Amino acid sequence: MNQTSQASLPSRHAVSSWLKRMPLPLLEAALVLTWSSGFVGARFSIDHAPVMLVVFWRCVVVTLVLLPFVARQVRLASPAVLLENAGIGLLAMAGYLIGVTQGIALGVPAGLAALLADLLPMGMALLATIVLRQRLARRVWLGLAIGLAGVVLVTHDALAWGNAPLWAYGLPVLGMLSLAVATLWQRQRSNVSRALGLLPNLWLQCAVSCIAFAAIAGTQGSLWPVASAGFALSVAWTAGLATLGGYGLYWLCLNRSSPTRVASVLYLSPAVTLLWAWAMFDEPLSWLMLLGTAISAAGIWMVVRTESRRSDA
């Protein structure tokens, strides 16, 4: 057993070293691509099963796939480290996804729910300023505002006011704030998260979120998987791209950059989501979307430049 562990150790160090050498903009581009895939996966899964059932099984699959690779590290971790990372996971994964998907289930239009969820950079900046007493440069605030204006233009054609009860529109906002709190918590306690490691941390987040998703999905019907190719593809898509790719890259980028920069990069997610939808569902694109993407990119550039200068200083 020891020989196996020792033999695998160099490969783990090699992978870690390779990720550290990879340019941050390349990781951020991959983050935007995989993060936006989650919205497309949710759109695709609606035709095959309840969204919450797909979310539940996507976490089950990730938990089972990662278990052989993380079992030893999880077993050796202290209860305090496990408990804190479990709390971060519940907020980041269960809190965020339940807020967005349940809002849509209650009648909030998907485009409006996505826009409210995309307030993450602003929500994170406000929490950092009010709760953590951090001071952000004026150029950062300006860049965030410009980026948000671009997002509104990109999603303009998809926005509509649905028939959901008024309180339901707050669910995507609460989901966004849940992820913002988890992000700042993870950043402030980065030594605790790194003590566990990226993959064990992701496994733990999925494991504890399974319980929350099961509690909600169980009230809506059976937890048994749907026997169809569409359901299997939905689970595989969201487990591989949105969870392992999206959340994995999110935490990886956060370890190498500031929360404000990581969140601001996600302003490009709506535009990439629309590209996914155009390629997969033949949904139309417009010049307004292109203009909005360019404006969002300008806002992100301002944030990235300002944060980079502050980091160098």
SSE layout:
Layout: H1 2-21, H2 24-45, H3 51-76, H4 79-105, H5 110-117, H6 120-130, H7 138-154, H8 170-188, H9 190-196, H10 198-219, H11 229-256, H12 259-265, H13 269-281, H14 287-312
Helix pairs in contact: 2-11, 2-13, 3-4, 3-10, 3-11, 4-5, 4-8, 4-9, 4-10, 5-8, 6-8, 6-12, 7-14, 8-9, 12-14
Report on the architecture of this protein.
The chain is 81% helix and 0% strand. The chain is mainly α and 313 residues long. The protein has one domain (26-312). Helix 3 packs across helix 11. The model is unreliable at 1-12 (pLDDT under 50).
Question: What structural class should be given to the helix and strand makeup?
Answer: mainly alpha
Q: Could you give the count of β-strands?
A: 0
Number of domains: 1
Low-confidence stretches: 1-12
Strand content: under 5%
In N-to-C order, the SSE pattern is HHHHHHHHHHHHHH
Q: What is the end-to-end distance?
A: 47 Å
InterPro entries: AA-Vitamin_Transporters, EamA_dom, EmrE-like
Protein name: DMT family transporter
Subcellular location: Membrane
Family: Belongs to the EamA transporter family.
Give a brief rundown of this model.
This protein is mainly α and 313 residues long.
Q: Can you tag this structure with a few keywords?
A:
313 residues; single chain; mainly alpha; disordered N terminus
